[in-house]
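Could you help me review a protein record that somebody else here produced? Here is the record exactly as it was handed to me:
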Amino acid sequence: MDILLFLIPVALALGGIGLAAFLWTMKNNQYDDLEGAAHRILMDDEEYKSPEKPQSDKSRD
């Protein structure tokens, strides 16, 4: 029974930290663009492609 005197305040503190983190993300607009990341992963940007291998010089043949 004595452990409950320790566990209940710890559980309430962890819940409060979680609530504070959630409210902080809401304040900083973390949930405004829910579909943007899903669309960005489908886009084929040239700057994100790996560089092509240089072609060998065919004038040596």
Observations:
- The mean pLDDT is 82.
- The CA atoms of residues 21 and 27 lie 10 Å apart.
- The two ends are 87 Å apart (CA to CA).
- The chain has two helices and no strands.
